[in-house]
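Protein: Response regulator transcription factor
Species: Falsiroseomonas algicola
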Amino acid sequence: MPKVLVVDDDPHIRSVLRFALERDGFAVAEAGDGAAALAAVADQAPDILLLDVTMPEIDGTEVCRRLRRTSDLPVIFLSSRDEEVDRILGLELGGDDYVTKPFSPREVVARVRAVLRRRAAPAPQAPVVARGELRLLPDSHQAFWGEAEITLTVTEFALLRCLAAHPGRVFTRDALMDVAYPDRRVVSDRTIDSHIRHIRAKFAALGAEPIGTVHGLGYRFSA
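Structure follows.
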C-alpha cells in the first residue's frame, strides 16, 4: 500500500490526517518538524509527502527546496496561507499541489490519490521523447539535456513531455492545465506559468532555453 508521510507541528492535524488516510487504505508515517521530515524521507521511503508550510526552524518550503536537489518525491503543501502568491511559491519550489487550512480530510485524501495517479508509471515501453539535446524517458521518469540529468516533479515532467512531443506547436494554458491536472480541478492559469518558470530555471542552469512564450497564446518547445 502507498505510504504517506504527514509532516505538521500540530499533533491534532497529524492525527486527523492519519485516521482519514489509514481508513482509505494508506500506510502513514509522521514527523513533527522539518528536520524529522528529512530524516523520515531517507529512512522510510514514503510515496508522497503532506507537508505543512509553517513550522519552526526548518519550514515546509525549505524542506521541499532541499528535497528537490535530489528527489522528485511528490509533495502536497498544507498551509493556513491562502494568498495566491503563497500557492504560486509552493508550486515554484516543486510542490505538486497546495491545500489550505482548514481543510476537509476527505479532500486531502482525494488530492493524495490524484497526485499518485499522475505519478503512476505510464504504459509499458512508453516511447522515449528525443528532441535535439533533450531526452525524456517516461518509463523511468528521467530527463536529460545532453549528458546532464534534470530532476523534474511529476507535473513538470508531464508538461515538458507534452511540449517536447510536439515541437513548434503552441499549447494554450488551458490545454496544459488538462495535461498537468487530468482530474480537472479548478486552478489558476498562473499555476501553469509557475510550473513553466520552474522548468525553465532548471534548463537555464544548463545554459538552455528550449521553451518559448508566444505572447497572448501560450508556450511551445523548440529543439
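Remarks: The first helix runs from residue 11 to 23.
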